[in-house]
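Proteins fold reproducibly. Take a tokenised chain:

. . .
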Amino acid sequence: MEMLSTVLPIVIDCLIACLLIALIVLIVKVIGILDDVRLLVDNIIDKVNTVNGLFSVIRKIDKSVNGVAKRLVDVFDSVLSKIPSKKETSAEEIELDEILKGRK
């Protein structure tokens, strides 16, 4: 019994020391992994920022092309609206025009 009371604290102290060493090694490895993850995230952020720049250029080009197309459509619309219509009027349209002229 006396031997057990002297050996047991020594064994427990050795186990605690081994556990502490294992914990320190584990923490060092986790720190290394976190550094690698940080580098990976920084790399991804740089690539996303590059793609964002590309999208901003595409957006500017789209706006300018859209503006030019809109102006062209407005010009063609105004030119076509100035050309008189050569459409034949139906009897109903003539009757409607006569009714509207009678109101004036």
